[in-house]
Design goal:
45% helix, 3-stranded antiparallel β-sheet, 241 residues, WH-like_DNA-bd_sf, Tscrpt_reg_PadR_N, PadR family transcriptional regulator, 3 strands, globular, WH_DNA-bd_sf
Length: 241
């Protein structure tokens, strides 16, 4: 895949005054301490929309003509966990972590400094990260307690990172679909930018269309579909008995 661009994922909104009645109070986390939460811009939950009519949309759910939608919410707890995952790979400055998340998601999610730096400070307060001061700059390192937190959440972190990798490929696929140019392909017929085979994309589209067409299915039909999906999932993950 080509080098992702560093894009701003969340548009700036009007500044809100602090301590508004509608702002959430920080809840207790699993350790009994206050979890650090940031409110993210945008209320939408879709990753982004496809071209008009769903042309080339790899997940088969485009077609509202609304253009790109990058207002996906990421909770403060998720952001903290992803920062720990990145620190495990490399000790980093805050701006390096911001760029790393933007690159991982192909610019779909690039948190602002106002979200990342308070999260890093909180991770330091919890003992999950340590700080190496070099002049005015701080380089963050993963602490042993932070590694324990990662070890307890490996599957969750892997899923989050894989979602970002998927949407990065999806954005590349969509950009090419919008361009109208023929796709460059590899030796196996895979798309050169994403690595996806056309039949893989078509199968995803067909499955999502089939599920949408059964949205009003009764309990008996839902159970039949659920059994089919469970068997398919077991085959995909290799957990068939």
């Amino acid at each position: 895949m080509r080098q992702p661009q560093f894009l701003t994922a969340f548009p700036r909104g009007p500044r809100r005054a602090r301590n508004k009645p509608h702002e959430a109070v920080r809840p207790q986390d699993h350790d009994g301490r206050h979890a650090h939460h940031q409110r993210h811009a945008g209320a939408g939950s879709d990753w982004f929309s496809g071209p008009p009519g769903g042309r080339g949309e790899p997940d088969g759910l485009g077609g509202d003509g609304g253009g790109w939608n990058r207002s996906r919410k990421v909770s403060g707890d998720d952001l903290q966990l992803m920062l720990l995952g990145l620190l495990e790979q490399n000790p980093s400055h805050g701006y390096e972590l911001i760029k790393a998340l933007g690159a991982l998601s192909n610019g779909f999610y690039t948190p602002s400094p106002g979200m990342v730096y308070p999260a890093l400070t909180y991770l330091e307060e919890l003992g999950y990260a340590t700080v190496e001061q070099a002049g005015a700059k701080k380089r963050y390192h993963l602490a042993p307690a932070g590694r324990e937190r990662l070890d307890a959440n490996r599957e969750r972190l892997s899923l989050m990172f894989n979602k970002f990798k998927h949407v990065a490929r999806k954005m590349d696929w969509m950009r090419q679909a919008w361009s109208g140019q023929p796709r460059s392909t590899g030796p196996e017929g895979e798309d050169a930018a994403t690595g996806w085979l056309p039949e893989f994309v078509e199968a995803r589209q067909a499955l999502k269309r089939a599920l949408l067409e059964r949205t009003d299915a009764g309990p008996k039909e839902q159970r039949r579909i659920a059994a089919i999906l469970a068997r398919a999932t077991a085959e995909i993950t290799g957990s068939c008995s």
